[in-house]
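We read letters as residues; the integers encode the fold. Take this protein.
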Amino acid sequence: MTSSRFPAHGSLRLSIEGQLLIIEGSGPANLEMVQEYQQQVVGLRKKLMHAPWVSLALLSGTPLVSPEAKELFVQVIKQAKTMNLRATAVVLIEMESVELVRQFWREIYIDAGLKFNFFEAEKDAREWLTSVLENESNTDVEQTSQNVLN
């Protein structure tokens, strides 16, 4: 990890429920926050990686990052896939510019090759993630609420 002259900007909270990693983030965030996320999530992934697992991203504020930080997110997600991550559900909470934010995160998940979906309600996101874990034969790479890519 390279040291930085800047403090992390944005907020982050991580927790585990069974085979579900919950990521609560608020932005915008800088590269240093993405690096902090990368450091914090490693131990949690090691607890989950013995079986397929999924993640729930609850995002608020304006969860956008610089191009450099965006590329780091892609790499972090690719690493998680090697540790048995199967899919991510994203809930955008009370947010302006929802379509801009969806497109931003859609590009990250597509570049990382991870199945994903956007939801308006956390309950719906959790149900979808449960179905992903229950149906390991599902081979779609990416899914969004607006289209399914096969």
About this structure: Strands lie at 11-17, 20-27, 53-61, 85-92, 115-119, 142-143, 148-149. The chain has a mean pLDDT of 87. The two ends are 36 Å apart (CA to CA).
